[in-house]
Amino acid sequence: MITTGAKFYFGLGFLLLVAAVLYGWTSGGVDWGLFPGHLGDLYFEMLGALTLGYKGAVGDHLGYGVLLGGAAASTTIGSFMVAFRDADDKPLAEVAGLPVAPPLQPVSSSNVWATIGAFAVAVIAVGVATSGWFIIAGAVLLTIAALEWAMYAWADRATGDAAVNASLRNKIMNPIEVPLFGAIVALFIALSISRLFLTVPKLSATWLFLGIAALIFVTAIALAAAPKVPKAAVRGLLALAAIAVLAIGIAGAVTGPREFHNEDEEFTVEGTGGPEDLYVYGQVPTTTAAVQEQSGHSEKKGE
Amino acid sequence: MTVTESKPEEVVPDLGAAPAQPALPPEPPSGIAGVLGTADHKTVGRLYVGFSLLFLAAFLVTSALVNAEAMDAASLSILDGNSFFQVQTLSQIGVVFLGLMPAFLGLALFVVPLQVGSPTIAFPRAAAASFWGWLLGAGLLIAAYIGNGGPIGGNSDMVKLFFVAFAMVILSLGLASVCVVTTVATARARGMSLMRVPLFSWSMLVAGSMWLLNTAALLANLLIVYIDTTHGQVLYGAPANRWIQLTWIFAQPAVLTFALPLLGILGDATTVATRIRPARYGVSLGAIGAAGALTFGAYAQTAFNPALITEGLFVLQSLAVILPLLALLGGVADSVRRGRLRPTSAFLVAVAGMLLLLGAAVAGGLYALEPLNLGFTVWGAGVGNAATAAAVAGIAAGVFHWGSKIWGHRVAEPIGKLVFLAVLAGGALYAAGQLIAGANGQLPVLPDGTVDSVAANAELGAMLSTVGCALLAVVTVLVILAALPAALRRGPKADADPWGGQTLEWATSSPPPHGNFLGPIAEVTSPSPLLDVREGAAKEIV
């Protein structure tokens, strides 16, 4: 039996197939004059349109190809509609071996990975136009989003109980997500805070480090002392902290590191003078013997 | 590896008469995190409708600006030569791909699962991803234009970004279309065969399928142009050739596909307005299907075959598409004659849209007749304008018909009467201006904003089109104003069934709960299940 859905898609496919033949036949400049001399052309071009150009000629290849492609796509979908009998409930129930087809379940869980996936595609799009690094970053993000999405998709349908589904998903994914997320957060904090320490003067960096450590310590004590503090407040605090760390990192990166190459950190040894006797920070020998060896003064003095 | 301590219990369907449906599922999280992570088709639908209406209003204003430039054919007065073409192309893309298509898809994402009695959309997370992909793609597309991109922009990186962002928008809308089409095809309630599916859902099945077929070819065009743009700019990617390869989607017959959902909205609004059972339902389904099939336009790429508009297929198709539209209009007239007409805003606006769409089809038929010498004149743009106006009317009708269901508060019905007048006048002027100029032989404006020659009445036509386009922008703003209080949860709450509707979406509260229906849906036995209940032919439906 040809179902209603299949009728539409088969009808569309047939229409496009006829259109393809008509278009392939007529768009080649065929002469429609009904004289014996032209019958050969008519036949030649009709044969081409009917045989996908295997025998004879086809007019506009692009239009002919698009119409044939459309016909093939429609016919394929129509075949699926027939095979699944329009997904009517009775055939579905028969296939499932149940008196009635099982109903669909709405998804209750919140899952931002679809949104992150879309964002990753946007990052790739920017990368295609600008820099390859964006493409790599977007592809990594898209891969993670696809994996998480797939996991959610499985878990959402694992059982009929949303709570059990969430628990199942968490049991599998949390051992992966928590360390990974922790590592990313640690990396993020280390990168951002290190920008700040590299930017401010040496002494200030020490005091800042002490201040930040004290602030974290005091906040942790306060939270521990008030266990009934609302979750929203803790979340808000963490969000503010994350924004602050990000802002610090960006500000530090934009400002750039302080100047490390200065007079105090240069070191000279007694010698003949000139650039070869100048030792800069990072290349300073730590022992007298090493100084003499590096400078060659021991041999010079001995000579 | 053991991942659970005990095997979770499977849900075993009740073997009784009604299909098993568990107790109402838990509500998804609310707030920003809830919106960002939503898989609820209603939230996604609302987001699509809201953003697309804003985009539509904005790009109709820029379209009016472009039309206004042609009022003085001698020179550009508002835009300069460099920006004219950019604004023109952005307006065309914006109206169709950031306005019309997503607005219809938003309505469909909300309404179609309700109409077919499904507790959810097919692939709910894909539907959410499609929205965010579309929104981000739209942002990148606009950013590309601002950064001197677009099809012939001066910044090569931004030109590349334009093509990629445009492709992203198309892919996202394609994904949403897949969700809608699959829902109609596979998620219907018990007893609801496709012969009993509501007309809007059916029209979305048809429109979604045609959009997928047409935009697949457009994506191929974009890919070819992008590759040649980035590797040599020899032929397809040469600046002068880029845009012309994409214009077929805005020309007949493809442009008519963007108004296809209007046919379903008109059908549903007619049953509500006339308060009678639809007659010859199969004919209506067939006519919508035929109208859709006859708008396949991916082959009609005049950039590669300019003589195409004189080919037999193009002529036949252009004339044949008028017939199903006439059949549908005849069905509406028959319903009005048989029923007790209650002229709701949705019905009036949908009828106005139908007249505009019929006008577009007739004008398209004339365009294809070689003796009239309309080929390649702005008559073709007039056809597109009429189809655009019809689609705008369809969206407006959809918002007035289902607005209370979507937002749970009543949409200002009196504004609908104003919208009816504005959309009819605006649409007619928007199309007529170009048709008048085209009938006088006016050719389209060149990329630099100049014209080869100015035909008689061309400037008058441009003025009419400008006024018409501005009126359509006003229509969109009016629709936003009518829906805004409801969207902000202001005003009187809406009843579950304010119209005495006949299809399943009216069997649940406004807005519907998570899971859509409060219980299992009884077997559907006709295209009007709620009317069956009212007439005593069936028991309670939910």
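qc> The CA atoms of residues 235 and 496 of chain B lie 58 Å apart.
qc> done
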